[in-house]
Structure formats: structure tokens, C-alpha cells
């Protein structure tokens, strides 16, 4: 268990008795990364009987690699439109899809 034994997690409203009702379980692999698991009675909101449980873990977060993004401001639009027109001329005339295979073939032509 992550929360050490005998740390109260609740103060009964009627009797003001401290109780140990909450248990915090942690996978064995994460236990070695546990920095602290404790309660914070001073941060308990009014009219609440449970204490806040604060848990801190050491977590390595790998830095993400940013994917290259298109810069549409730098596009030579005349060249792009000419290349697009040439590609569109190679496609067959639009037609209604009669079955799934026909649709898949048409999608393959568009994306290649």
C-alpha cells in the first residue's frame, strides 16, 4: 500500500474521531517511483469528512518530437494548381459507387 499504516484519512463528523478508512494501492512497479503518499488534513474543505490524499510519483515523460507542418504561406500556388490539375486529369470521371470494392479502388487512386 502506498499510504503508510495508521495515517488517518477521515474525521467522523459526529464524533470527531480520526479513522483509517481509505487505502491507497499502487502497483509494485510504481512503488519504487513513489515520492510521498500522505494526507492533508489542513486542506479539508468545510463539511467534508475525508482528508485530501496527496500522492507524488517520479514519472519520466519523454520529449515529444514535433512533426513537420505544412507552411501554406510559402507555397507556389500557381505551380501547385498546375500539378493538381495534371493529377486530376488522370482520374476517371466521377461515378456512383456500386460496391465497397469500387469505392476502395477509387479512394486508392485519390491518395496515391
How would you describe what is shown here?
- The structure is a single chain.
- This protein is α+β, with helices and mostly antiparallel strands and 112 residues long.
- 26% of the residues lie in helices and 15% in strands.
- It contains three helices and four strands.
- The strands form two sheets. A two-stranded antiparallel sheet has the order 1-2. Strands 3-4 form a two-stranded antiparallel ribbon.
- β1 and β2 (18-19) form a beta hairpin.
- The longest helix is centred in the last third of the chain and has 13 residues, at 77-89.
- The chain is elongated, with a radius of gyration of 31 Å.
Radius of gyration over all CA atoms, rounded: 31 Å
Task: Report, as a whole number of angstroms, the end-to-end distance.
Answer: 55 Å
Shape: elongated
- Unreliable stretches (pLDDT < 50, length at least 5) are none
Q: Can you count the beta strands?
A: 4
Task: Give the oligomer, counting copies of the same chain as homo and different chains as hetero.
Answer: single chain
Please estimate the helix content.
25-40%
Q: What structural category characterises the helix and strand content?
A: alpha+beta
How would a crystallographer describe the biggest sheet?
2 strands, antiparallel
Element string (H = helix, E = strand): EEHEEHH
H/I helix tally: 3
Query: Approximately what portion of the residues adopt beta-strand conformation?
Result: 15-25%
